[in-house]
Amino acid sequence: MTMTEHLELVSANKSFGGWHKRYRHRSRTLDCEMVFAIYLPPQAETERVPLLWWLSGLTCNDENFMQKAGAHRMAAELGIAIICPDTSPRGTDLPGEHDSYDFGSGAGFYVNATREPWKRHYRMYDYVTEELPSVVRQHFPVNGRESISGHSMGGHGALVMALRRPGHYRSVSAFAPVVNPTECPWGQQAFTGYLGEDRGKWTQYDACELVARGASSQPLFIDQGEADDFLEEQLKPERLEAVCAEHDHPLTLRRQPGYDHSYYFIASFIEEHLRYHAERLHKKR
């Protein structure tokens, strides 16, 4: 990255005294044009603010959370910025990229692909942990304190990034995360396609495996709807619960009766998650 990294402003909307902005830039990591969204609270006009990363789920892009979660009001009150990357590379026109909702476009699974033809572009782990943070530090008034959260596939990404990078994020939370992707259809399809048949390479992107390995002692905060259509086949929160209990890993797992997998669920509990992160983001250490 250089200090002359170019950002093109796509849109800007004032919201709760702050600004929701979308930017386009050329990603060197993904070798394509990418769009991301950032919410800057009113406090960012006069001071540097902490940052919450939000990783979205399958079929989403940078817009879903910002429009549907109702997070701006509380982020403005708490003085935290929120950044939403896209969920995959865009416009790469790879064969099979648009054949299904759960693989390819909109379904990057926050891994660094090692198989052809995906490995040139599908490097979302490095994009979210290295390239985009560098861009954000260059262009926005952030103070270096970061937390991370996400939903479904993005909840998987948030947990994995926090567990693999001990001490980097002040806190991590997730809504309905894919906690054991090596053992569910979504994860098995994605990992086979992006990483190949060697399951040993998959475990670096599996929260249950990382907890079992003792990768980090980062406390995990998760909300899971009990009426979620994907609960039994794809999400399997009881597996993370069991491995955390076995390895004495701090976990708060809240099962919410009646809630499904939608943004109605996220909007219902986002204030509690934002307060959880803000408390840790504003602490000096």
Automatic annotation (TrEMBL):
InterPro entries, sorted: AB_hydrolase_fold, Esterase-like, S-formylglutathione_hydrol
Record keywords: Hydrolase, Serine esterase
Cellular component, GO, one term: cytosol
Record-level GO BP terms: formaldehyde catabolic process
Molecular-function GO terms, alphabetical: carboxylic ester hydrolase activity; S-formylglutathione hydrolase activity
PANTHER family documented for this protein: S-FORMYLGLUTATHIONE HYDROLASE, S-FORMYLGLUTATHIONE HYDROLASE YEIG
Protein name: S-formylglutathione hydrolase
Gene name, Swiss-Prot/TrEMBL: fghA
